Structures are given as C-alpha cells and as structure tokens.
Here is the input.
Amino acid sequence: MTGGWTTPCGGGIWWDKQHTSIAAISNELLLSVAAHLANRVPAGEEKESYIHWSQRVWDWFFQSGIINGDNLINDGIDQHSCKNDGKPVYTYNQGAILGGLAELAKATADGKYTDEAKKIANAAMRKLTEDGILTEQGEDLGEDGAQFKGVFVRGLAALDAQAPDEAFAEFLRRNADSVWERGRGDGGEVIGPNWAGEEQGKVWMAGHAAGLDVLVAAAQVG
Here is the structure.
C-alpha cells in the first residue's frame, strides 16, 4: 500500500494503479491497517514502522483539507488542485477513520487521536441522521452503498471501546432498536437499507449485513 504514496499533493496514496483519483477511503484504510498491525506485533522496529506510517497518513489527511468545515470527510482530494474535491459525504468515510484512529490511539497511548475522531463522530451523528437515525445522504447508492452505514457503526463501536462516550452508546442502541422494530421486511427476516423504516426498495445482502453490524455494535456497548 505504501508504494502508492506518490500523489502530487504532498502525500497520500492513489485510489488505483492508473492514478485516476485520490480517495479518502484508500488513505483511511492505509492508516487503519498500519495501526492495527502496530497493535499486533511485539515492540521493536516493525511496530515503530507501522506506527510511523499510520501517523504519517493521519498528519497528511488532517492537513489536506479533506475534512471539511463541518468536521465531515468528503470523498477525496482533487489531484489537480490538491484541495477537497467537494464530492458527497458518505457514512463509510466517517466510520473508517474512526476505527483507524481508535487503533492509533491504542498503539501510541495518545488521546489526541480519539479527540479528533470524536469530532468527526459527533458531526456525523448530527448531520448524517434523520431523527437520530443514521441515513445515507443523496441518491440510491445500490449494493455498494447499502453497506456504508455498517462501516460507520463498526467504527463508532471501536471508538467507543477505546474512548467510551455514552452519547455513542446511546446512538448505537437507538439505531439498533429502529432497525429491529422498523427496518425489517420479508416477514422480519431481512433487514432493509432504510433503518428508519420507510419504503425499503431493493434489499441487498450488503444492506442486511450492515443492519446486523448495528445490532452487534449495540450489543457490544451494552
């Protein structure tokens, strides 16, 4: 992954080998992978290398402008202007960074990473919800988009495990309750993409899995 650290924007990895874009998720996953590895190897040079890469990605990410004025993460960086591309804000981009920063805080024993993660989490809970229920913004995103909210709640649960916050736990419980009471169709056996319970439309396996993610996350926080 680090072999892709060749963008013209002072850091970051490319979305693909064809260098078509600089996406938030690619860099969030590099940060997360490095931090997870740092927490799973003995102390030493290898561990320090993983920590170094995770911190390097975060420092670039934080300074890049990809986190907008609302403390939410847009889809990527424009490779020509090296500024926030202004593309949509998706729930999964918020969730992926929450889990990565929670692991980095654990690896470094530095709470500044969870402090930054909490800003993003709180912004998402305010702005990417309707009546307190997580809602993907914009158009129907199909099978890929059906899994986005699951990424967010997994990341939020990971952040809560590292830096407990009752607001996070309450949010997960509220969303799990809504999924269980209003988000199930087909005789109660399949979870649809709309956790608030309106018209579900197309039901995807990925969306069902995302619904299970929030039920598991709520169980984890108790």
In short: The mean pLDDT is 94. The chain has two domains: 1-119, 141-222. Strands lie at 22-23, 76-77, 129-130, 133-134, 184-185, 190-191. Residues 1-119 form one domain.
